[in-house]
Design a protein that fits this description.
Structural class: alpha+beta
Number of helices: 4
Number of domains: 2
Shape: elongated
CATH topology of the largest domain: GMP Synthetase, Chain A, domain 3
Strand order of the largest sheet: 1-2-3
Radius of gyration: 17 Å
Order of helices and strands: EEEHHEEHHE
Number of strands: 6
Largest sheet: 3 strands, antiparallel
CATH architecture of the largest domain: 2-Layer Sandwich
Distance between the termini: 36 Å
Length: about 140
């Protein structure tokens, strides 16, 4: 069964001096302020499209890795994934680096690395961002 999730943004003003609010309609969890300075300079309590992508990518990757490990008979106890999304004004998103530290009883480092590479390749967010260079660091705790 397909699902659709929805968010919307209301933007007021010009790019450099304006600001907006991103609202997560499907979940109703929150609205977040967004601005050009939060994207290209310092966050200052506001989010950016890149931070939203980082959240989406880190959670999708964690789910894909958990699924793959469980399917291989070595379910994880804990996975902590960080996604660093780099934005260069005038160029766009120039790269994404995923870092995962896992607690997986009965699994060695090589098998964990292979499972993480598979999750990076096959998670739906990675596939949606396939035009961007995605790198990975994976280690067992």
């Amino acid at each position: 069964m397909a699902t659709t999730r929805t968010a919307h943004t209301v933007w007021e003003g010009e790019l450099l001096t304006g600001s907006g609010t991103v609202t997560f309609d499907s979940s109703g969890i929150a609205s977040q302020a967004v601005s050009w300075p939060s994207r290209a300079e310092q966050a200052n309590g506001r989010t950016s499209p890149e931070e939203l992508i980082a959240g989406a990518h880190s959670s999708c990757f964690s789910m894909a890795l958990s699924h793959g490990l469980t399917g291989a008979g070595t379910p994880p106890t804990r996975l902590e994934t960080k996604a660093d999304v780099t934005f260069q004004p005038g160029e766009g998103i120039t790269g994404i680096h995923l870092t995962v530290v896992g607690e997986v009883p009965g699994l060695d480092a090589d098998a964990f690395q292979a499972a993480a590479e598979d999750a990076k390749k096959n998670c739906p967010v990675s596939q949606a961002l396939s035009g961007t260079t995605i790198t990975l660091s994976a280690e067992l705790a």
